[in-house]
Amino acid sequence: MDFIKAKESDLPAVLALYRSVIGTGGSTWNKNYPSMENLQNDFQTGALYVFKENDDLIGAVSLVTKNELDGLDCWKIRDGTQREFARLVVTPQHQGKGYARELVNRVLLEFKKDGCHAVHILAAKSNTYAVKLYRSLGFAFCGECSRYGNEYYACEKIL
Predict the structure, then answer these.
(1) What structural domains does the chain harbor?
(2) Do 121 and 137 contact (CB within 8 A), yes or no?
(3) Per-residue model confidence as pLDDT tens digits over 3-48
(4) Which residue, among 101, 87, 108, 90, has the nearest Cα to 36 in the 3D structure?
(5) Which of 4, 15, 100, 102 has the greatest number of C-beta atoms within 10 Å?
């Protein structure tokens, strides 16, 4: 499996992947989010990563460069060494096979290499798959919040 920064040529396939999970498995995404604008911003800032096997797209994730979640009061680590990831997705045909777990583990390794001491993520309460995954990976559920018209758990993992 290759976990690499996305190429510009990957953007249409990643957008199609985003669209393929709308309305499934507790996803809070819709036709407006994530958008091509989100993808282009992530790509331009070097934040968009893809997960591939033999050049086939398995998943994607954005290693956020500007932490929007830092304003939440629930975090234990707030010293500037924390990072955030967003828009984690695995193709429907590869779901339930451990790829999301592997993708998150690759993200955690990448953050560790960069000197990060904690990771923050919001997990939609309705996304039982994500909630189960983050719990199994040792994320602490630090609080709850409402954002973007949805309810979320604030999850933190100290590295």
Answers:
(1) 2-158 (3.40.630.30)
(2) no
(3) 999 999 999 999 999 999 999 888 999 999 999 999 999 999 999 9
(4) 87
(5) 100
